[in-house]
Amino acid sequence: MTYQAKEQSVEDGQPIELFRFSNSEEVFTYSGGQFNTVFNAETYVPEAIGRSDPTLQDATAQRSLTVTVPSSNLFARRYVSIVPATVDHFTLFRRHTTDGGTPETVTYFSGEVLSVSFKDKTAEITIQNVGSILDRLVPQQTSRNPCNHILYDAKCGVTDTSFSLAGAVVAISADGLNVTIDTGTNTVPDTGFELTAQLDDDPTFFNGGFIARGGLELRMVRAVVNDTGNVATLTVLFPFQTISVGAALSMFAGCDHKLPTCLSKFNNVDRYGGFPFIPEKNPFVIGVN
Question: Percent helix, strand and coil across the chain, each rounded to 5?
Fold first, then answer.
């Protein structure tokens, strides 16, 4: 039988829903059932997960959907302290376990995570559907002093590998927020400095940058403390989902999006995306003498 036949049947329907959250770094997959479910080569693990009721006939008719998970849920924990830098996408799949060995699976709802709120021991994830996303008006640039570009993107034009440093994890704090990396004798290509020399020259060189585990996970760096030799402890905004001692990581320099930094650190003023010479005094506020 098809999904629709099972959905409309009186007794044969046994629905199960699959919840998929993804971004440019990670994928989180959860099942509303009792057992692991494999779909599109991804394993959906059982979770105490629920949702609000969308419109059955038209998934795009519902402007938003609320998914409820335990506050300990790994995906929800990304929003405990800050809003992640990457956009989280959501897809809700639905199938019937009584629909044979390869049940027909339909996309029931899709969109982007709008917000996550915590109450008691649960987290409520609000998702805005794809149709409503297209209604938003988003300015490409604003008239402000700091640079509008994202560091290392096409408009910025800075090559990330020129400001990177490879190393390996030697220690991880219990909460996963402090990662200690040994970079050995590796150097930053642009400056030619090893880690200790680089931090002696500029202690904030990696602040606001990120560390990456291959092409799988990125974490923004809040602070760096130089340890003994070319070993440093980096504080990240939220922990890696999967990481262990010995894992290879790359550190990338950060930027405060100010003109002096663009000049002295990256020599990239020609591509500066801000408006640093806007007058600080507004004649419509202070008047004209």
Answer: 15, 35, 50
